[in-house]
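Hi again,

Forgot to attach this to my earlier email, sorry! This is the prediction with 2-phosphoglycolic acid bound. I've pasted everything inline since the attachment limit keeps bouncing my files.
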Amino acid sequence: MTQQIFAANWKMNHGPTAAAGIVSELRRRWRRFDVEMIIFPPALSFASARAAAGDPSPFKFGVQNVYYAERGAFTGENSAPMAKDAGADYVLVGHSERRHVFGETDEDTAKKCAMVERSGMTPLLCVGETLDQRNRGETAGVVTRQLRAGLAQLDQVELTTSVIAYEPVWAIGTGRNATPEDAAETHGVLRSVLRDLVGDRAAEVRILYGGSVTPANVEQILGAADVDGVLVGGASLEPDSWLSICSA
Ligand code: PGA
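Structure tokens for the complex follow:
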């Protein structure tokens, strides 16, 4: 049995002061040590959030994005080695907002996953179809392409330790979550692609669901086949709702 992951993607919310306050509160109220909880603060809030978690921290931390070069003239970007140095364990790669707002390509996600692994962290690769693609019946094809492309530069060990999130674009921030049946179907597709890549060890790869997860629907979603945790945006921003999700 793999350990479930509860991941909080704060997106562009909570500056350094607010982030530290929230993490301190989460630390005070945290009771579950049988799951892996990961917080993804904005890059500028990372250090204060990480510091507020104490040492040892009961949670893991990640960054929401890195560039795939190690260093250099890339104004505005942060590298994977910098994220590692700051204390990150995970990096989100290919989040739908990166793909659809900032034009990140499958090729970019492949280079980022490789750089994240080589810097000693774990990529959390996000895949998901748009509403048009779903309506055209292309869901399985789209997520298969995104998954294969994003993982293309990883070796067998890296493949089995990476984490995947299925986040249908139409469910992110819309209040419209996938049904447990929809989630199970697509997670099944992802698991079979992984089986193709790493055989039986595909069972060890954690596949999270994301998109309008709330305290009200999290239990149903976690009950679906092949769902090994959740990636949560809006409902992870306040300690009450986030802790109630994590207690599911
Ligand atoms: P949401 O976002 O929970 O606000 O829908 C999820 C995500 O984008 O990771």
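Residues 9, 167, 172-173, 210-213, 231-235 surround 2-phosphoglycolic acid (CB under 6 Å). The first helix runs from residue 16 to 29.

That should be everything now.

G.
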